[in-house]
UniProtKB/TrEMBL annotation:
SUPFAM superfamilies: Concanavalin A-like lectins/glucanases, Fibronectin type III. Keywords: Coiled coil. Residues 43-70 form a coiled coil. This is Alginate lyase 2 domain-containing protein. Residues 234-439 form the Alginate lyase domain. GO terms for biological process: carbohydrate metabolic process. It holds the Pfam family Alginate_lyase2.
């Protein structure tokens, strides 16, 4: 204090500049350092996150490049291959890339199970067959994990009806009105409805022609007309539905399987019509183009014979009926082995050609525009291949065919609506009759 009782200004100034307790300083420094460390850690984490994001973007761009180049398999849900570990597949029904983990498919990038409409596998091998009592038997193969199925029924032109909560893989419908009917089925797995099965088309009354329903005119079956099980050979039919590729077994064909517009007898009763849509499912990830095509069987199993020994013959009459304008090419008749085609009878914008062992320079067999009929004979005798068209020998050669050969015939389009500028509802079709297969 100074005289008069006032504060000692000098003491106050001295106290103002007296250093604080060193322990307080250490604490504040440590706090500041800790805060700085946390900021640094946060920045490092941010850098790592940015690096991870950039890596993820790079990976997605790489996958997109592979997909664009056709090096990643793609297609509908029903065509997914086995989910081998690391196997990639772009599911067109889901619009998502998937990756296999060895036992199941997961979404690429999230690791979660696939989700969304159509995420479960569509039912396969759906058939709708009219019975002698005019009931319609619908049946299909089971879907693993499905709790129930939903059947859709179209009575042209009255719209869609059907049945819910079907817990079996078959059901009988008993329509009272004669005419045209169309059916398909979906599966429910974990509450999610699958993509559609292939569609089954039939007509009442029993034995009527699907092209003229209600007439009662016997139409027979494609298997009868092509003499399956007799001179016309034994076959499995692959159908490239928009929902995916489906195989129709030899037994189903022998039981009269027929389905417009894919495989049926023409209105005049003289031909079997083969048709495939441009957005049809493919047989494998290695195949770009869809098909509705017969594959040779023998004694209930896939045919496999040696092309260098014995006699092997397939002959038939055919006519190209429709093809889209962009890349108007199709295959109507093949010899195949375990790896690839060894002979293709190709229709290319009206010119019939034979391509042997994948030759890029096929041999011309004649000109046959849309609707023009032609007869083909393919014959192997002790390794020598002879091809005749309308009775005239066009090719005689020894192609060096070995074991594992088999015949194929039908509509194998060489275009689609992905690579070509063809409409989504476009299709390719041909008619075939007088099929003969012989082996000795």
């Amino acid at each position: 204090m100074v005289a008069g009782g006032g504060p000692d200004r000098g003491a106050l100034m001295a106290n103002r500049f007296t250093p604080r307790n060193p322990r307080w300083v250490d604490t504040e420094v440590a706090t500041a350092q800790n805060f700085a460390n946390r900021i640094e850690d946060g920045l490092e984490a941010l850098d790592l996150g940015l690096d991870a994001t950039e890596a993820r973007v790079d990976a997605l761009q790489a996958q997109l490049a592979l997909l664009s180049d056709g090096r990643i398999p793609y297609g509908p849900t029903s065509a997914r291959p086995s989910p081998a570990k690391g196997q990639l597949y772009f599911d067109e029904d889901l619009g998502k890339p998937l990756i296999g983990n060895g036992s199941s498919w997961i979404e690429f990038g999230t690791g979660e199970p696939p989700s969304g409409p159509g995420s479960s596998t569509a039912p396969q091998n759906f058939t709708a067959v009219v019975q002698p009592n005019n009931a319609i038997l619908c049946s299909w193969s089971p879907v693993p994990g499905a709790s129930h199925y939903k059947l859709y029924e179209v009575r042209s032109p009255n719209g869609v009806s059907g049945a819910d909560n079907i817990t079996t893989t078959s059901t009988v419908r008993t329509p009272s009105t004669m005419g045209y009917y169309e059916y398909w089925v979906t599966a429910f797995v974990d509450g999610v409805e699958s993509a559609q099965s292939n569609h089954g088309i039939c007509s009442l009354p029993y034995g009527s022609d699907p092209q003229n329903p209600g007439t009662g005119t016997p139409a027979g079956s494609p298997a009868e007309l092509l003499a399956f099980g007799a001179g016309g050979g034994e076959w499995n039919l692959g159908v490239g539905y928009p929902s995916g590729h489906v195989d129709i077994t030899p037994q189903q064909l022998m039981n009269g399987w027929s389905q417009a517009p894919y495989f049926y007898i023409t209105e005049d009763g003289a031909w079997v019509h083969f048709q495939v849509p441009m957005n049809g499912g493919r047989t494998s990830s290695n195949t770009k183009y869809p098909r509705t095509e017969l594959r040779e069987y023998r004694n209930g199993s896939k045919a496999s014979w040696n092309g260098s020994s014995g006699t092997h013959l397939m002959s038939y009459r055919a006519r190209m009926m429709h093809i889209e304008n962009d890349k108007p090419e199709a295959v109507i008749g093949q010899i195949h082995d375990g790896d690839d085609d060894t002979l293709q009878i190709r229709w290319e914008n009206g010119n019939l050609r034979a391509s042997i062992n994948g030759s890029k320079h096929p041999t011309s067999l004649g000109n046959f525009p849309i609707g023009a009929e032609f007869a083909v004979e393919i014959k192997l005798v002790s390794g020598t291949l002879t091809i005749k068209v309308n009775g005239s020998t066009k090719i005689t050669t020894n192609p060096g065919y070995g074991s594992g050969q088999y015949f194929k015939i039908g509509m194998y389009a060489q275009q689609n609506n992905r690579d070509q500028n063809n409409p989504a509802n476009g299709y390719a079709s041909c008619d075939i009759r007088d099929l003969v297969v012989q082996h000795s």
